[in-house]
Design a protein that fits this description.
Layout lengths: L13 E5 L5 H6 L6 E5 L2 H7 L5 E4 L16 E4 L9 H6 L3 E3 L6 H16 L2 H9 L21 E5 L3 H12 L3 E5 L12 E3 L4 H7 L2 E4 L13 H6 L5 E4 L8 H9 L5 E4 L19 E3 L10 H18 L10
Parallel strand pairs: 1-2, 1-3, 3-4, 4-5, 6-7, 6-9, 7-8, 9-10, 10-11, 11-12
Helix pairs in contact: 4-6
């Protein structure tokens, strides 16, 4: 099979959905669009379907060698916002359009970040541990050991993009002070009290009671939170990572948590996932772990399909730019 010279018509197109869990095809069918498609659940199934695919909707199953099995491919729609696993130069060289799903989990991730902040400040993870041990905790005389309130605290958001901006808006409802970093600080932020360039991250770290990572993984943000950054945080401060695991130097974080150099951390992502059963992070009483589920809600498939259909219609209209186009 070889790729045709123009994007296939609605009657000729074939879409391949590839994900280990998400019900992409079922939700796509519910939209009533009469477009040929298939659902694959494993990498082997995806590779077998690629020779006949014009459009691929994928995230975790992607490996760059999949391109060798996809002679007809015109357009790849990532199911997730992150795209560091895709070889953009290889896609570009083959003339394949690529868009990510930025914004698709804007509400979900920002709400998850708030939930983690509340869980840490209200010590919900400790309460659950005590519940399993059938322990009714008594009142606490030591003030710093008690649960706390978000009101009046300072939230530091690292990466004031779509997710970070919504998180700032939610935080203001809790009467928090919000400072944030973004690549172009001159753009400001409607709900942030101060917006700083990334070069002023040390200022944010020193002032924040909660440091929340909502930044993409780039060369600039890889290991952004290292031993030096952690040392700049307050001993009473918490780190919340709903970005990518590689934004944090995990060895340095483990040492900081064990040494109580910061109060605690809530981690939705890790460098290697799933987190190994023998990882020492599981046993830390000042760490709260969720299994990379910040963006996963009952609306996820629908949100991705909205982007997919918008981009298919743009391609059929011959528009030069896709929604969320990367390549």
């Amino acid at each position: 099979m070889t790729r045709v010279d123009s994007f296939p018509s609605p009657t000729a197109i074939n879409i391949c959905f590839a994900h280990v869990a998400y019900q992409m095809a079922a939700r796509f069918e519910a939209r009533g669009r009469d477009l040929a498609h298939t659902q694959t659940w494993t990498r082997d199934e995806m590779v077998a379907a690629l020779p006949g695919a014009d459009v691929l909707v994928v995230s975790g199953l992607w490996r760059n060698d999949a391109l060798e099995h996809a002679p007809r491919l015109w357009y790849v729609q990532s199911i997730g916002a992150g795209y560091n696993q895709f070889d953009l130069d290889a896609l570009r060289a083959r003339g394949i359009r690529f868009a990510n799903a930025s914004g698709v989990n804007r509400a979900a991730v920002s709400e998850h970040a708030i939930a983690l902040m509340l869980a840490l400040s209200r010590q919900l993870h400790s309460g659950r541990d005590n519940q399993r041990r059938h322990i009714w905790r008594q009142m606490i005389s030591d003030i710093p050991s008690r649960e706390d309130e978000l009101a009046g605290r300072t939230l530091g958001i690292v990466g004031l993009g779509s997710i970070g901006s919504r998180l700032a808006r939610l935080a203001k409802a809790f009467e928090m002070r919000v400072i944030a970093t973004r690549r172009d600080a001159a753009k400001g932020g409607e709900h942030a009290d101060r917006v700083l360039p990334m070069s002023e991250l040390p200022t944010l770290l020193a002032e924040a009671d909660f440091v929340v990572l909502t930044c993409p993984l780039t060369d600039e943000t890889r290991n952004l939170i290292d031993a030096v950054a952690l040392a700049r945080m307050r001993p009473s401060a918490y780190l919340v990572n709903v970005a990518r695991g590689a934004c944090v130097d995990e060895a340095a974080l483990l040492e900081a948590l064990r040494g109580r150099r910061i109060a605690g951390a809530a981690l939705d992502t890790f460098v290697e996932e799933p987190l190994a059963a023998e990882s020492p992070f599981w046993d830390l009483d000042n760490a709260l772990i969720t299994p990379h589920t910040a963006g996963e809600t009952q609306k996820y498939e629908e949100n991705v399909i909205d982007i997919l259909l918008e981009n298919l219609d743009r391609l059929w209209r011959g528009e030069p730019r896709l929604f969320n186009q990367i390549v």
